[in-house]
Amino acid sequence: MEEFVVTVDGPAGSGKSTIAKIVAKKYDLTYLDTGAMYRMIALYSLENRVNLEDERSVVEMLENTKLDIIGNQFFLNGKDVSAEIRTPEVSAVVSPVAAIKAVRVKLVELQREISKGKRIILDGRDIGTVVFPKAQVKIFLVASPEERARRRLNEYKEKGIEEDYESVLNSIKERDHIDSTRKESPLKKAEDAIEIDSSKMSIDEVVEAISNCIDRKVG
Ligand code: CDP
What we know:
With 219 residues, the chain is of the alpha/beta class. Helices cover 52% and strands 16% of the residues. Helix 2 packs across helix 5 and helix 7 crosses helix 8 (165-181). The longest helix is centred in the C-terminal third of the chain and has 17 residues, at 165-181. Cytidine-5'-diphosphate binds next to helix 2, helix 4 and helix 8.
């Protein structure tokens, strides 16, 4: 089977994972949430109080973390951490963790390994620029910070996590800033990516826009 790669990059809360899951089902693609992988490392660093400034501690952390992804479940050293990685606490530390070069080297390698020979859709920040620069379809999904904060707040509500709008908005802006200004693989649109602003679009409309891009490639 020939490898077919769709990349969806964009800032925090732009709806990448919701959309990517639906598109995956529609086209029978494997879905890989690369943000969840960074979140697992961030969770480990929190739980083990890893000093992120210290190179040796970071190397040791990477040696001690085994990530397994089975469907939509995420296992850190054998433990299902699918819920823990979505908390505001993890969101607050994930961007500094993801800015560390050694962390990115390990996870990008794993992402390529998982994708090998597959028809796959991946979402993240650097998938179309760094991980799969030759992907067949590249999407850059954006939305206003206010809309993204509203969506994230709703997700928290559904999970019973109490947060207020202002702190979610601030956390999103902070993460956007770190992700787009970091030295290693910053968040940016690949030159050949199609940009979609989902601020005023329904989920169905975004799925349709992406489907059109895929159909043009495979049709
Ligand atoms: O879902 P949300 O937009 O909140 O973020 P995520 O996709 O779960 O990613 C969490 C964090 O991981 C991002 O803020 C980035 O710092 C980092 N990340 C990255 O650096 N590269 C990726 N390919 C995916 C995520």
